[in-house]
Amino acid sequence: MISNFSIVQCIFNRDQYTPEEMRRILLEAEQDESSAAKLLADDAMDINPVRTAVLLAMGNNYPNQELHYASYMEMFMTAMKTMLHTEAVVERFPCEEDEEQPCYATSQRLSGDISFTAGLIASEPVYLKLAERYSEEELPEMDEMAKDCLEEFINVLNGMFSVSLGEQNIETDLELPRFGQNVILHGSNQLRLRVHSAVGSFQVVMATDEFF
């Protein structure tokens, strides 16, 4: 069973560090996780810190999506570490600002017993860094390989989420990933969350239909 515990998310939830300071902490934690553990007081322990952050961001505005959105973000943040080898934390407030252009979005819809779409949007430098972390190759410019890398990442992640839903007797089918540039976000029941990572910040977007 995969643990949803995250030392760096616990630290971020304490609201004592700026995003710039957190990026330094994340970079150091990638080299030595004990460096982050030293910053965490015993009384600040939360065994599900990502879920805590997401539920705070959602408030009472998403009553029918609460469990799916929180569970997806827990899986996403775990995948950041296991698949992209990148430490990251998620904000406790909905994201309202747009990404610096040019920016790129990758999403995928799950249809069936529920309708759920999830993906990410990032400025070009961050999008490329995320693609590099996934491919473990240098990607100096935006091209088909960078696009394909993050489409594959989202497809694998959402496939795992679909399996998890199936274990709850919620059957879903994966549609093909979508890609867009400088998109306007407009999904139903849309939740945008700012993720700060060691390679920069970006948004994870979840909705009940396509959001671009």
Automatic annotation (TrEMBL):
Chemotaxis phosphatase CheX-like domain segment(s): 108-179
The keyword Protein transport is annotated on this UniProt entry: no
Record keywords: Chemotaxis
GO biological process: chemotaxis
The protein, known as: Chemotaxis protein CheX
Pfam families (UniProt xref): CheX (PF13690)
Superkingdom of origin organism: Bacteria
Keyword Repressor: no
